[in-house]
Amino acid sequence: MLEKIAIITMMIFCSSLAASPSNAQQQTDAHARQWWQNAVFYEIYPRSFADSNNDGIGDLNGITSKLDYLHELGVDAIWITPCFPSPQVDFGYDVSDYEAIDPMYGTMQDFDRLVSEAKKRNIRVILDFVVNHTSDQHKWFLDSRSSKTSKYRDWYIWRDGKNGGPPNNWQSEFGVPAWTFDKKTGQYYYNYFYPQQPDLNWRNPAVKDAMLDVTRFWYKRGVAGFRLDAVDTLFEDPNLTDNPPSPGKDKFGRPNFARIYNTKLPEVHGALQDLRKIADQYDAVLIGETWTKDITELKNYYGENSNELQMPMDLMFGTVNKLSAPEFRRQIAAVDTAGGWPVFVISNHDMVRSYNRYGDGVHNDEIAKLMASLYLTLRGSPIMYYGEELGMQNNDPKRKEDVKDPQGITGWPGEIGRDGERTPMQWSDAKNAGFSTTKPWLPVPPSYNTHNVAAESKDPNSILSVYRQLLAIRHNEPALLNGSYTALNDDDPNVLSYLRKDKNEAIVVLLNMSNSPQKIKLNLAPQGFASPKLTVLLSTFQQPTSAAAADTVELPPFGALITKITK
Ligand code: GLC
Ligand code: CA
Fold first, then answer.
1. What is the largest CA-CA distance in the chain?
2. Which of 174, 200, 240, 366 would disulfide-bridge 168, Cβ 3.0–4.6 Å?
3. Given this model, what pLDDT does residue 532 score?
């Protein structure tokens, strides 16, 4: 199949309606392109990528040793989730020193070497900045909790209790109380996540200045930007107004509340603007972990004058949980017209892997290739998650005693936590998937025998081979990098079709999201192609060899076809 690329030429006629690119899109395209708009990002969970010293936990030298793999894959930037000193209560998202490397992951020299080796391969390094909270072992918090008159007291959110209980009814995201009583000073501190993750007080200018300095520290070491963790929760209502109840219960069985007084406060935009001013001095990018309920909310994160996040993640796209052409079409259209540069993600360290979410149990590998063909050919920057290019699947804990993520320990069995999507990278069919010679911190799933880098590198039809080709095409085709997005056949319930068009080039992507064969008729005349020929750039299925001059394209179940238009 893949070796048959570019052998078919099809003439396309027939009818359909198609929209033209929006003004917002044209405006964005008119601006000079930035490096991060051309880049494919790749998220690395350092505990699980490669273990160079065989202690069962991945490390920075492990990542450095795999840079050639990433370069050959076609990755332009890696985002490393927190690798700073941390008690590891939330596996690094509880930082006890923002300006150092956790010894478990290596040294600052190892980090510098990683950045310079990456640079040689044109790979930029993005770090994860946990802006909302520190670890309770951070020196700022240790000082803060030591006395009510500590210089650092107001760096966190301390309040008296009310009626013998916490100051108000706010709840932690992680199924525990959001206020933790501290005997020593007789007050409560606020923690949106675990009690070991006290929230910083961003209303204190000293906190803001210290955090801005952290970004300068890393930019000077060659870091190309940050993924900002949990930005929605940076500010809280200073009056501590109770949140109103909302229907139903949460995943921990607690009554729901609408989190209007402790998430998404307008003040967050000021903080993002300050972070952005510094990022701009270093040509750096800010990526946001932005959980938004609709496009209006997402739009706000770009900033009214495009002066906040360049890349707020569209996590609404990432949480579409079933294959549906109309639903993806709707999501893409929404973000495409939002006015900023779209950011597409289908998996990460907090979300069940895409292989499990979209797989039907029969065509899982085909579906993995289909999803790759979708989010790697859209207008915007994709962020891959390590192992997604192999078809790695979740390996969820079966017993409570095996759970590592405290969220799963608290929530078991209703909420099993996030261990399943954080298992070691599958390098080969050797013991522990070639990740480590020691038992890894999380177990690899049995599928590592077939779904691993070594085996898939040899197979031209593997998921990995499709990813490699997709990334190569993406980098070589101006229409995919710069082109506008136009939905085609937008009433088709099964096949998602679109045109990516640059000045002189155009590409048509056809994705069968159904489990039955589909015939597609296209009319590209309204797009300026009266009698176009389509040359296949990539197909995930066996091509008929004599399809010349067909007026209809046929796709097998879950088939993906990417073609280039030649006039
Ligand atoms: C973000 C991270 C998640 C972490 C949480 C608290 O959501 O992605 O892994 O647990 O923030 O820092
Ligand atoms: Ca190690």
1. 82
2. 240
3. 87
228 lines ligand 1 (CB under 6 A): no
Q: How far apart are CA 300 and CA 539, in angstroms?
A: 38
pTM score, whole prediction? 0.94
For the chain, what is the mean pLDDT? 93
DSSP code of residue 178? S
Q: Which residues are catalytic?
A: 229, 289
**Helical H segments across 380-527, by residue range:** 406-411, 453-458, 463-476, 478-482
Per-residue pLDDT tens for 382-417? 999 999 999 999 999 999 999 999 999 999 999 999
> Ligand 1: which of 86, 89, 135, 229 to mutate, judged by most atoms within 8 Å of the beta carbon?
229
Cα–Cα distance list, 261 to 16, 142, 170 (Å):
47, 27, 8
Q: pLDDT tens digits, residue range 143-191?
A: 999 999 999 999 999 999 999 999 999 999 999 999 999 999 999 999 9
Q: Which ligand is nearest to the CA of 47?
A: 2
CA 191 to ligand 1 center in whole angstroms: 13
